[in-house]
From TrEMBL:
This is XK-related protein. It catalyses: a 1,2-diacyl-sn-glycero-3-phospho-L-serine(in) = a 1,2-diacyl-sn-glycero-3-phospho-L-serine(out). GO terms for biological process: apoptotic process involved in development; engulfment of apoptotic cell; phosphatidylserine exposure on apoptotic cell surface. It comes from Chrysochloris asiatica (Cape golden mole). Belongs to the XK family.
Amino acid sequence: MPLSPRTALLWDLVQGILGTAAFLLDLGADLWMVGQYLLSGHYLWAALVLALLGFASAALQLFSWVWLRADPDGLHRSQPSGRCLALLHLLQLGYLYRCIQGLQQGLLVWQQEVPSAFDLAYSDFLSLDISMLRLFETFLESTPQLTLILAIVLQSGEVECYQVVGICTSFLAISWALLDYHRALRTCLPSKPLLGLGSSVIYFLWNLLLLWPRVLVVALFSALFPRYVALHFLGLWLVLLLWVWLQGTDFMPDSASEWLYRATVATILYFSWFNVAEGHTRGRATIHLVFLLSDSGLLVATWLTQSTWLPSGIPLQMLLYAGASSFLLGLCLRLVYYHWLHPSCHWEPDQVDGARGLFSLKSCQLPQNGRLTGLAQNFFSKPKDEMASLMKREVNGVF
């Protein structure tokens, strides 16, 4: 049975609290790892972790600042002045400020007996931006860092407590970010059902099972050929960046920031599928899957021609069997999801989460997050009349 409106709003608020806590926990685990590397004399490893943290944080603050500047005047009525916001982003606190702002708005909506349509729409607007930023942070920092930790463990043959914590939190953060982003896309289009509990579990699992082999492949290559992994990443990243550019993305408010978005998407595509163009995604997703499989196959062939054992003494065959099994199981779950649980299928959803499906926001004057709505239009197939209606939006994010 669907949840009551207040219970659904409370569940959204709890999810926001958990997401913010997970971000702080992941940051704390990263800093703990850096400290341990410094104490043990592994200065290069500590520098690499700090570099990933710094690069991802800088990109995240830039995205957040550009979006705030592009939002309509008067939308964020209670936010600080422009100089204060600029200082927060300069101090790398912009994303955390957004999380706190989203929690405050969610608490305000939940405390109302009958939430106003504007407050509900504004709460959605904030949460959608947070979901997108969380996804970017995941693939700019958590995923490369997970690959680095696995490479260090595989090369040394030893695993420390802080490394186990880092591996577990990174895997969960990546899968959760993908799930949260997909749920956010569904809330943008009223005609799409919300993601139910069973659908969420399947979506979470197939993303986790498909991501693990790719991360393992790159980590093994890094452990065996640490001097060439940067060259491998740069070569594939340039190809993927060209592919994204050829698809004609139009996500950011200006051409300069659009290249930042394309570069970020190319980084995501290095590890996982991410759709950015309008139309049916099956063909592009298949091309991307074949591309990554071919690249992974070349990496495996490179290992086998050099050695069948890792420097730590672990046989490669054992890890390859585990990765192949994970990939096949994840691919099966992905096919199950898109065949029976994808919103383009005609099924009766079990709306156990989210308040968006319980409140109808029909007024065209309400704030709508055009950034995520545009990506949702690209991701989901729609009738032509619905597409024409949704395309009538301004660049700044308001219908």
